[in-house]
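Q: What residues go here?
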């Protein structure tokens, strides 16, 4: 089509795209046609702009996808999404490795190596999240490519624009080593409590043993004070000497306990006379 230019009075050649649209009456029959002409150059420019915008959005979406996937795949925790029919939509690299698969899309729990009871439990939990729109948390053992481990997991609802649950997202963390460390701490605490009880029993017994030599010592002293014959005192003195030595050994034992409690106790290797130890 040749059109006059706005200035100069000359003509320019333009291309137009015709568009014919039927206009229907109440009976559904065509009453007339609506004929429109669209400047092809302007349309081409508009199409090019729209295409450029689409390409920009695709590039931005791809950039965001790479960012999110890098973040999700850099964590040792498991990240995954299941639809409302209990079929997997996504799993990060750590979980794919544990499941021993390269793609999880469309798979259910049983397809991923779960036992029946385990699959039934997670199916029921997904249904509960969908029904309540609230997250749930639990701990469970699972045997994957890295052996039997203990996992802590959370299922959370993914809500659509209308507020309905459209998927269930989950994160899972391996807590096997943490539980082992906690158990080691509990075992150590029990051992320390046992040591304290043994020490208390030892001190109680030692206190009782310390009292036993005191009575004969007091009585011996009274006999010596009342006896005018020194010859008769020798047996009593011998007995007193033995009791005193016994007390000295008991006190030495108490000192050893004190050193153990303060952490200053040390063992020393030396030769001893076995007969004297037995006596």
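A:
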């Amino acid at each position: 089509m040749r059109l006059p230019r706005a200035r100069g009075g000359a003509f320019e050649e333009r291309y137009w795209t015709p568009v014919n649209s039927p206009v229907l009456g109440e009976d559904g029959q065509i009453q007339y046609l609506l004929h429109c002409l669209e400047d092809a150059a302007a349309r081409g420019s508009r199409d090019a702009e729209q295409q450029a915008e689409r390409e920009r959005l695709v590039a931005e979406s791809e950039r965001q996808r790479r960012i999110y996937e890098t973040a999700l795949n850099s964590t040792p925790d498991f990240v995954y999404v299941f639809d409302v029919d209990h079929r997997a939509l996504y799993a990060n690299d750590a979980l794919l490795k544990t499941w021993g698969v390269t793609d999880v899309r469309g798979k259910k729990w049983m397809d991923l190596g779960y036992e029946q009871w385990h699959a039934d439990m997670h199916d029921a939990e997904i249904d509960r999240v969908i029904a309540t729109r609230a997250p749930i948390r639990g701990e469970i053992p699972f045997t994957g490519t890295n052996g039997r481990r203990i996992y802590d997991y959370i299922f959370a609802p993914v809500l659509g624009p209308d507020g309905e649950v459209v998927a269930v997202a989950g994160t899972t963390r391996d807590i096997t080593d943490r539980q082992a460390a906690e158990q080691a701490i509990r075992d150590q605490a029990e051992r320390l409590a046992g040591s304290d009880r043994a020490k208390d029993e030892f001190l109680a017994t030692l206190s009782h043993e310390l009292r036993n030599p005191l009575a004969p010592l007091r009585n011996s002293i009274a006999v010596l004070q009342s006896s005018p014959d020194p010859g008769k005192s020798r047996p009593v003195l011998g007995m007193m000497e033995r009791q005193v030595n016994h007390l000295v050994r008991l006190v030495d034992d108490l000192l050893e306990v004190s050193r153990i409690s303060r952490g200053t106790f040390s063992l020393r290797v030396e030769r001893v006379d076995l007969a004297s130890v037995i006596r």
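A: Context that may help when evaluating the design: The domain at 75-174 is CATH 3.30.450.20 (Beta-Lactamase). Helices lie at 40-73, 93-99, 116-132, 176-211, 214-226, 233-262, 274-278.
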